[in-house]
Amino acid sequence: MSLSVEVVATPELGDRSYVVHDGSSAVVVDPQRDVDRIDSVLEARSVECAVVVETHVHNDYVTGGLVLARRTGADYIVAGAEAAAFPCGALADGTDLDVGDMVLTAVATPGHTDGHMAYVVTSGDAPAAVFTGGSLLYGSVGRTDLVDPRRAEELARAQFRSARRLAATLPQDSLLFPTHGFGSFCSARPDSGVDSGTLGDELRVNDVFADDDEATFSSRLVAGFVPYPRYYVHMGPLNLSGPGPADLGPPHLVDARGLRGHLDAGDWVVDLRDRDSFAAGHVAGTVNVPLDGQFATRLGSVMPWGAPLVLVAASLEEVAAAQRQLARIGIDRPAAAAVGAPDVLAPDGRRRSYPCASFDQLASARRAGEAMVVLDVREGYERAAGAIQGSVHMPWTEVASMTRQAGQGRLWVHCAAGARAGVAASVLARDGHDVVLVDDDFRHAVASGLAST
């Protein structure tokens, strides 16, 4: 008997899905919305999808589990105690399920969510494969404030007990396969940099095993939580409602005139270029969210949920890549897309630009007496560790609510390294503010004496 685990990584969201199989039958664990990637693995390994399992109802992405199960005829198992609005199965704690030559065992691991389950898959003498979802991660555990922030410490205590239960009941050579922990905000701690390991490895390095005091661990865990993306509040309800398939077909293409119509209608028109190129010249009224590994997370955090969306890109391939990322968080079917450079898409001259600067240039402008407002768009916990004297604070996701004030001078917008400030500066420029993007590392502000720590 054999047991193989195929990893389907989604680094853009910091998650992994898994296909575990015996050479004939497969169990798919926590599939993302774009299940064509799962299909490719099943086809390449010539295995049949027999069971799809969810460790929990996800708060950071839309699942593809229901679609995959319906299309393949596989059983669909959703973690217990979750109120799904569609027919599905559930496995009680300790229940075994035979899948080909494998045995899948459900283990209740509440904490990340109330009904969270881990799944242990065994086959013959091979080491057990433990799919821990958002409970026990590499070097950390899942955060416990996504279900209800008021219950964060209560669920952290449950998380502590769940991790200890896994350690007490499973062999130390059990292979660990978490869903979160690769940069996902569902993790209680930043990416550990580890991408494989055993339960024994975690016993030596994971904080949840470092202290036997449940209360101390829980308080410390909750105190370390950082803000999570705003779109998370929509993911649980979407997953419980039974999401349909992702529509990755090409959106309606518009020319310069059509693009101007969307801008005049107040749609969110998003330019996918890098922030320096956007600052140097863009179609008036557009905002900038670069197409990189954080694209969907950033757009989902700053754009009003449900707003009509138009993508502006250099190629159809970029539009397709953006659509795939967006479908994973439930943003389906852009209203339109436009392909081309700013001079092509705004031949009437309605183009704008704004300068980029360093912290040294900010310091020089300040010494010269330039009228300015230094706008810090980092999160509150970052600002608490050090800030530029006299700066104004507003998190980057909230700058659309900032009103213009007569005589305020230019807004010099900064974050920790330039990426979030780039998005914020573009939103502010769209709304008529005179901005300078400080595209620089905040450590240079500290080194120059601009910032206190």
CATH superfamily of the largest domain, please? Ribonuclease Z/Hydroxyacylglutathione hydrolase-like
Distance between the termini: 59 Å
Give the strand content: 15-25%
Helix count, DSSP H or I runs of 4 or more residues: 15
CATH topology category name of the largest domain: Metallo-beta-lactamase, Chain A
CATH 2nd-level architecture of the largest domain: 4-Layer Sandwich
- Global structural class: alpha/beta
**Radius of gyration over C-alpha positions, nearest whole angstrom:** 24 Å
Number-wise, the strands total 25
Number of domains: 3
Helix content: 25-40%
Low-pLDDT stretches are: none
Largest sheet: 5 strands, mixed
Short description:
This protein is α/β, with parallel strands linked by helices and 453 residues long.
